[in-house]
Specification:
By secondary structure, the chain is mainly beta. It has one helix at residues 78-92; strands at residues 16-28, 34-42, 46-57, 60-63, 68-72, 97-99. The protein starts with 15 loop residues before the first strand and ends in a 6-residue tail after the last strand.
Length: 105
């Protein structure tokens, strides 16, 4: 059984949310395809990992599930990425991720 990466935390999709201290990660999905996901902070200190990015347009990201994220402020600093690491790694469920934020910033 193939388990595709999926958004976590939104009970209803599509949704709209701001994303702070954001970054873009490239991961290999269970089917072997390379996908890009946005990650960052929503509502206080909660780390969000989105479903696959379908459209990245300036300060907004639209995901495969139809959710729209507004990117607030600059991308995450190395220190902020490090602070998010344990939760992000849990959400990635052991998958390796490459930071490709510089292609979007």
């Amino acid at each position: 059984m193939v388990q595709m990466l999926a958004p976590i935390g939104f009970p209803i999709s599509p949704s709209f949310a701001p994303l702070r201290q954001w970054s873009v990660l490239q991961v290999i999905d269970d089917d072997g395809s390379s996908v890009r996901l946005a990650t960052g902070i929503i509502s206080g200190t909660r780390v969000r990992l989105t479903s696959q990015i379908e459209l990245f347009d300036r300060r907004q990201v639209v995901t495969r599930s139809g959710s729209v994220y507004t990117l607030e402020g600059p991308p995450a600093t190395p220190e902020q990425l490090d602070a998010q690491r344990s939760r992000r790694e849990a959400l990635l469920a052991g998958r390796e991720a490459a930071d490709v934020t510089s292609e979007y910033a």
